[in-house]
């Protein structure tokens, strides 16, 4: 975990609007000696930050590293809670596993676990999620909402909207959502979301939201079995993108939507979700644990449950399924 002094230093640069900050001003601001400030500056340089030092003016950050570090995420982060506590790893089996452990140990709401690489990343139904090194966003977020356990799946839909809004802001492109947890661009998957619960019978202890976003992969980075179904933001945009910027934007969007949800309920989120949905009004096949449903997607209920009307006019409420859009 980052030291509190380092967090204060990054916050100072975030609030400086790229103006120079003197060593003495930084020392006074974060409550340490000028020597300690210098040591932290050198640590930032080792991480890949480029800092300009001008006599009688001070320091300013001129370039951030290619690698996604906690310091780079915090630089310019506008959230109150999400991302204020960051657990960063080079290579992990799964960020979800670490987030579950941290949640059990009492890590605060908004804690983010992020890795450069996942060796055993997974999506729904324990499917493998391809997570190569330094190409995407592989992270998990711990939330502790005061809502009944049956409402937990709504957090998947909230996160989907936040991801779409973040991608829109970063790239100018507009992805679509395939219920409940896939983000598509030109019909190919660019993001997956996995929501898992720690709960007692009548209360939620924590919700762990896993988010995998394909950012800078190129076609040759995918195994043959994924090339026809997966894409990346870089492939769609035609340029390399900043993973750290995407994370910062996403955490801001997610925090805003989460606050809206806790304050106003799911209905405002439902309207946003449906505006991005690819399946509404389309014919589809839903494979559930009890059977297969063929029909037209009508939308989602005020609780986030998918409604499908079959050829006999019967409306099915689908809580969990694999969805395949009919061509």
Automatic annotation (TrEMBL):
GO molecular function terms listed in the Swiss-Prot or TrEMBL record: ATP binding; biotin--[biotin carboxyl-carrier protein] ligase activity; DNA binding; transferase activity
GO BP annotation list: protein lipoylation; regulation of DNA-templated transcription
DNA-binding positions: 23-42
E.C. number: 6.3.4.15
Broadest EC class assigned to this enzyme: ligase
Pfam families: BPL_C, BPL_LplA_LipB, HTH_11
Keywords: ATP-binding, Biotin, DNA-binding, Ligase, Nucleotide-binding, Repressor, Transcription, Transcription regulation
Reaction catalysed by this enzyme: biotin + L-lysyl-[protein] + ATP = N(6)-biotinyl-L-lysyl-[protein] + AMP + diphosphate + H(+)
Residue ranges occupied by any BPL/LPL catalytic domain in the UniProt entry: 71-262
UniProt GO cellular component terms: cytoplasm
CDD domains: BPL (cd16442)
Binding-site list for biotin: 118, 122-124, 189
Protein function: Acts both as a biotin--[acetyl-CoA-carboxylase] ligase and a repressor.
PANTHER family: BIOTIN PROTEIN LIGASE (PTHR12835), BIOTIN--PROTEIN LIGASE (PTHR12835:SF5)
Family membership: Belongs to the biotin--protein ligase family.
Name of the protein in question: Bifunctional ligase/repressor BirA
Native organism: Cytobacillus oceanisediminis
């Amino acid at each position: 975990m980052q030291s509190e002094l380092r967090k204060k230093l990054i916050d100072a640069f975030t609030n400086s609007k790229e103006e120079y900050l003197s060593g003495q001003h930084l020392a006074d601001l974060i409550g340490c000696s000028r020597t300690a400030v210098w040591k932290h500056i050198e640590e930032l340089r080792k991480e890949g930050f480029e800092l300009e030092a001008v006599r009688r003016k001070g320091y300013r950050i001129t370039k951030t590293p290619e690698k996604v570090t906690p310091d780079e995420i915090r630089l310019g982060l506008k959230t109150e809670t999400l991302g204020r506590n960051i657990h960063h790893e080079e290579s992990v089996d799964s960020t979800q596993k670490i987030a579950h452990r941290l949640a059990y140990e009492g890590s605060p709401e908004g804690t983010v676990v992020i890795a450069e690489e996942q060796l055993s990343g997974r999506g729904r139904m324990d499917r493998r999620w391809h997570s190569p090194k330094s190409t995407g966003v592989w992270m998990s977020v711990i939330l502790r909402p005061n809502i009944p356990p049956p409402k937990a799946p709504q957090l998947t839909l909230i996160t989907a909207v936040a991801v779409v809004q973040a991608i829109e802001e970063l790239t100018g492109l507009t992805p679509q959502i395939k219920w409940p947890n896939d983000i598509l661009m030109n019909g190919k998957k660019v993001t997956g979301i996995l929501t898992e619960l720690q709960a007692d019978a009548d209360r939620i202890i924590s919700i762990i939201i896993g988010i995998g976003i394909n950012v800078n992969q190129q076609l040759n980075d995918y195994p043959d079995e994924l090339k026809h179904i997966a894409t990346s933001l870089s492939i769609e945009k035609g340029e390399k993108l900043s993973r750290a910027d995407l994370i910062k934007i996403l955490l801001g969007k997610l925090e805003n939507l989460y606050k809206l949800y806790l304050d106003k309920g799911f209905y405002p989120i439902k309207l946003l979700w449906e505006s991005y949905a690819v399946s509404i009004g389309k014919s589809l096949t839903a494979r559930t644990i009890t059977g297969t449903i063929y029909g037209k997607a009508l939308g989602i209920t005020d609780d986030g449950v998918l409604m499908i009307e079959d050829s006999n006019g019967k409306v099915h409420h689908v809580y969990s399924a694999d969805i395949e859009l009919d061509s």
